[in-house]
Amino acid sequence: MSLTLTVLGTASPHPGPDRPCSGYLLRGGGAEVWVDAGTGTFAELQRHTDPARIDAVWISHLHADHSADLLAAFYGLAYGGLTPPEPVPVYAPDGCAQRLAGFLGRPDAGFLRGTLDVRPLYDGHVARHGDLTLTARAVAHDVEAYGLRAACAGKVFAYSGDSGPCAALTELARDADLFLCEADVDGHRDGERVHLTPEDAGATARAAGVRELLVTHVGPTLTPEAATARAAASFGGPTATAREGRTHRA
């Protein structure tokens, strides 16, 4: 009944050698959930599980570095011999199915339903798979975006997705055992805040009272090591860098 997170990819905004974009495998309560499907993560998912066995896919927002490998997943599950016993639930912002269908040149997304059961997320959305509960919270980004709070057997995992500083993100992470948080930008920019600096990530973790902070989705103006060090100084608690292939326990 443990709650674990395996890192599939962390890159922003495009994949690099041996570094896919955002994607994670969350396991707990007898369920396996693929969290974000950034470019390159479907291949990495296959290192850790049979994609036909996953219970659900959860997509924070529809930017390509978090969702593009849904296309690879559809091909693998529909045509590549990885056939699931029933359509896989995909929790994603509204319009996800239509985007996939459009890429494939189909005017109607209905043909996806035999493979991917796409269900729109909304603020406060709750889904349960086995003894794992997934709750979505709308966060501040330049498109519709959600953070994730997952709970199982008294343990809590929280994930920022892409977000600027906001009260909803702090509440999402409240008392989490493991908080996976982006630190995409080096400093504050003029205008709307749609990403977090390392200091923002650490401050959010501190305000939320999380047990451990895991830094991910570090942008090209930073190194993961520097971002983690800065987030740790702001947080004042246990802080680590998310790295491909590693598994963390909540």
CATH hierarchy: architecture: 4-Layer Sandwich
| Helix proportion range | 10-25%
Which blocks of ≥5 consecutive residues have pLDDT under 50? Answer: none
CATH class: Alpha Beta
Shape: globular
Number of helices: 7
What's the story with the biggest beta sheet?
7 strands, mixed
Using the CA coordinates, give the radius of gyration.
Answer: 17 Å
E-strand count: 14
SS-based class: alpha/beta
CATH homologous group name:
Ribonuclease Z/Hydroxyacylglutathione hydrolase-like
Query: Under CATH, the topology is which?
Result: Metallo-beta-lactamase, Chain A
**How far is it from the N-terminal to the C-terminal residue, by CA?**
11 Å
Strand order of the largest sheet: 6-5-4-3-2-1-14
| Overall average pLDDT | 96
Percent strand equals 25-35%
Count of spatially separate domains: 1
Q: What is the chain-wise order of helices and strands?
A: EEEHEHHEHEEEEEHEHEHEE
Pick out its properties.
single chain, 250 residues, alpha/beta, Metallo-beta-lactamase, Chain A, seven-stranded mixed β-sheet
Walkthrough of the structure:
The protein is an alpha/beta fold and 250 residues long. It has one domain: Ribonuclease Z/Hydroxyacylglutathione hydrolase-like (Metallo-beta-lactamase, Chain A). Helices cover 24% and strands 28% of the residues. The protein is built from seven helices and 14 strands. The strands form two sheets. It has a seven-stranded mixed sheet. It has a seven-stranded mixed sheet with strand order 7-8-9-10-11-12-13. A hairpin with a 7-residue loop joins strand 8 and strand 9. Helix 6 packs parallel to helix 7. It is globular, with a radius of gyration of 17 Å. 53% of the residues are buried. The model has no long low-confidence stretch (mean pLDDT 96).
